[in-house]
Amino acid sequence: MPKVKSSKRGGKPPEGYTKIEPTISKLVQKLKDAQTQTEKHSVWKIIQINHQISRYVYTMHYNRKLIDKPLYEWLLKQKYVDANLIAKWKKQGYEKLCCLNCIRKEDNNFGSSCICRVPKQDLSDDKPVECVKCGCKGCSSTD
């Protein structure tokens, strides 16, 4: 999750940051707003916005090749993105992972993954699935 401070510890951003700065700034502002909310599902919003920021940077760097390596590493160092989540997205079967909490086996019943990781065709009933940790409605790679 990005640090929400006004000081710049990492110095001047690398070249190319001005292209993505409006989107990053907008998402960071949404994150700040979500952190000050006290409603029931505000933690879900924080996790979802963190996912949005990380997915945006991941897509811009790995899929669209619009962010070069120095800028990507600077964003990681500044903690704008979740490096562990991006590392999981690179592995087969985790391309759509919503958050790291859903794959932590010690936090789930029976030492398994979260219900949102189960492919929808493998569920016995047609009730909508919603993760209690992050509000995800399904992040299995086969969905």
UniProtKB/TrEMBL annotation:
Keywords on record: Nucleus
GO BP of this protein: mRNA splicing, via spliceosome
Translocase is among the record's keywords: no
Family: Belongs to the BUD31 (G10) family.
Organism of derivation: Candida tenuis (strain ATCC 10573 / BCRC 21748 / CBS 615 / JCM 9827 / NBRC 10315 / NRRL Y-1498 / VKM Y-70)
Cell location: Nucleus
InterPro entries: BUD31 (IPR001748)
Pfam family, one: BUD31
Protein's recorded name: G10 protein
Residues of the signal peptide: none
Gene Ontology annotations for the cellular component aspect, listed alphabetically: spliceosomal complex
Keyword flag Lipid biosynthesis: no
